[in-house]
Specification:
Layout: E1 2-10, E2 13-21, E3 31-40, H1 42-49, E4 65-73, E5 83-87, E6 102-105, E7 110-112, H2 119-141, E8 150-153, H3 159-170, E9 174-179, H4 182-192, E10 196-199, E11 215-220, H5 224-232, E12 234-242, H6 256-261, E13 264-267, H7 275-288, H8 291-296, E14 298-301, H9 306-314, E15 321-325
Helix pairs in contact: 1-9, 2-3, 2-7
The protein binds NADP nicotinamide-adenine-dinucleotide phosphate.
Length: 326
């Protein structure tokens, strides 16, 4: 028997409780993993609180990512004792996930732990960090260079945002961190590498279809009016990597930035991202993130604390990354 956070449905409400389960209850898969760390992402917050329709079949063990050690493997790519990472693929949504001491998953979903990584580091990065790296890569692939001008990052205090600020600063970009919490988090964002901090309210409210160009690039984690207003402020040839909806899923924009300024809007998905792209992103993340990131930008919690933090992350009250220690 081992501990797992199990979600059940009570009428319309989602109820989360730490329960004892055994390996025979786990879903099918070629690899059984002893989970060492999971992490809390925005989607986990929506799933655990029931605020988003993430989970269709109950009971469900949430946790869209984890790092751990192989206990059993029916796949030659993974050996007993090998350290592995999993992010995405619908795990913690449709397939029991990482918020349990054991997980059984498909071998195709696993990435071998890079030699310079630990489970703790891997989950300090987690889905949010991987997504931030994919967004940074999208800006680079779109031709945005440090000398082109400032890059805006929305939801900067969050998981994706804080990793993106750190990565771009390490790569020599001028990073402007957009946050609703400049009073409490401004100095912290600058310590991660932001050149300056901008108050979220400056980009809220309905703007004009085109404004004075200001940004060479943008990584957007919030969507809606903020993304629309930032699009209107992109420089000629500017690139926006959009990965999130923490502020809403609407996009009330016009074609103007695209047809008059050659702006590119690049969507970023980490869930179904192919394994070779993930492996490269993990390598880059471990090369670029300084030791100070892991010290300054992470909080470690227990399985029992997940419901409380899930509520907080959906209310925009979590700063940096939350690691779950199993
Ligand atoms: N596409 C993918 O594969 C992928 C992968 C991971 C995450 N995501 C998405 O990316 C987003 C961020 O994820 P995360 O894990 O980084 O979440 P997070 O840690 O909660 O960060 C989100 C941040 O957005 C800001 N925010 C919160 N509510 C807001 C609102 N109503 N309006 C404007 N800004 C608001 C807050 O930052 P400030 O207080 O600094 O403003 C908050 O810290 C989520 O929508 C998530 O679903 C997508």
């Amino acid at each position: 028997m081992f501990n797992a956070l199990v979600l059940n449905q009570d009428g319309k409400a989602t109820v989360a409780a730490v329960s004892q389960i055994d390996a025979s209850q786990l879903p099918a898969g070629e690899v059984l993993v002893a989970v060492d760390r999971s992490s809390l992402n925005y989607k986990d917050g929506l799933a655990v609180t029931g605020k988003g329709k993430i989970i269709r079949n109950f009971p469900m063990v949430p946790g869209i990512d984890f790092a751990g050690t192989v206990l059993e493997s029916a796949d030659p790519r993974f050996q007993v004792g090998q350290a592995v990472i999993l992010t995405g693929w619908g795990v913690g949504e449709r397939h029991w996930g990482g918020m349990a001491e054991q997980a059984r998953v498909k071998a195709d979903w696993l990435v071998s732990m890079p030699h310079n990584c630990t489970a703790d580091k891997a989950m300090a990065i987690g889905t949010a960090g991987l997504t931030a790296m994919l967004c940074v890569q999208a800006l680079i692939d779109g031709g945005v260079k440090p000398e082109d001008g400032e890059v805006l990052i929305s939801g900067a205090s969050g998981g994706v945002g804080s990793v993106a600020v750190t990565l771009l600063a390490q790569l020599g970009y001028n990073v402007v961190a957009l946050t609703g919490r400049s009073d409490s988090n401004g100095a912290w964002l600058q310590s991660l590498g932001a050149t300056s901090v901008m108050e979220r309210s400056e980009l809220e409210g309905e703007g004009r279809p085109l404004e004075k160009g200001r940004w060479a690039g943008m990584i957007d984690t919030v969507g809606d009016q903020i993304l629309a207003n930032a699009l209107a402020q992109m420089n000629y040839n500017g690139v926006v990597a959009a990965c999130g909806l923490a502020g809403g899923f609407a996009l009330p924009t016009t074609v103007m930035p695209f047809i008059l300024r050659n702006v590119r809007l690049q969507g970023v998905d980490s869930v179904m991202c192919p394994v070779p792209v993930r492996e490269r992103a993990w390598e880059q993340l471990l090369q670029l993130l300084p030791a100070s990131f892991f010290e300054q930008a992470t909080t470690t919690i227990s399985l029992e604390q997940v419901p409380e933090y899930a509520e907080a992350i959906t209310n925009g009250q979590v700063t940096g990354r939350v690691i779950i220690k199993l």
